[in-house]
Amino acid sequence: MAADTFIFLDHTPLHSALEKVDGIDPSPVIHGGLVFFLLVGIAVAVNRSYQGRDAQLTEKTFSLTNIMEQAVAGLMTFMEGMMGDDAKRFVPLIGSTALFILFSNLMGAIPGFDSPTSNLNTTLAPAIVIVLATHIVGIKTHGRGYIKQFLGPVPWLIPLIFPIEVISHLARVVSLSVRLFGNMFGDHLVLATFMGMVSLLVPVIFMGFGLFVALIQTFVFTLLSIIYITLALEEAH
User: What does the buried/exposed string (b/e) look like for 181-191 if buried means 16 or more CB atoms within 10 Å of the residue's CB?
Assistant: First the structure.
């Protein structure tokens, strides 16, 4: 099997049906849209399962509703350990972002599909949303006092601290997006290379490693998002 026919590269059945328009590759948009509609479908299905009963944890049975309940409960517990009582406010933002990234990462493991997060344009979107959300939260929480986090402890350090803080906050966008993109793109490239050289057994090892990378990168993005929002909630010193 040649590397250029491997399912993780751009020559997939779905991608072959998509032509580049004005040099723009529509594949990440299409696959990102598929992830979006998949998550909406899951949300609708889970919501319907609650009709006629209280929204509480079900028995430990293998079902879509139970899986999502356990995932949300686990995320809530994790966030409460870092954010305290403020965690509940941000579960919708953090949870939806984490699910989108996780499903996008895992989509590349399905034959005939690409991973949207192996494209920098896709990873930039949630990174920008999270960073903007941190500043919105900071302003709503502290008002004008939020600017103190950018000024440093003493007035005479403002000319030095302010540019550094601005650059560091802009770097958060780069950190979140490039880390996710680089790891997912690199993982798919390595797997494609080995699949081109050895079509049996060996690629299975790297496919398992790819699933591990998908989970780890979702966790890292989620953890950093929680940390950034927590820092915005804290009083400036």
Answer: bebbbebbebb
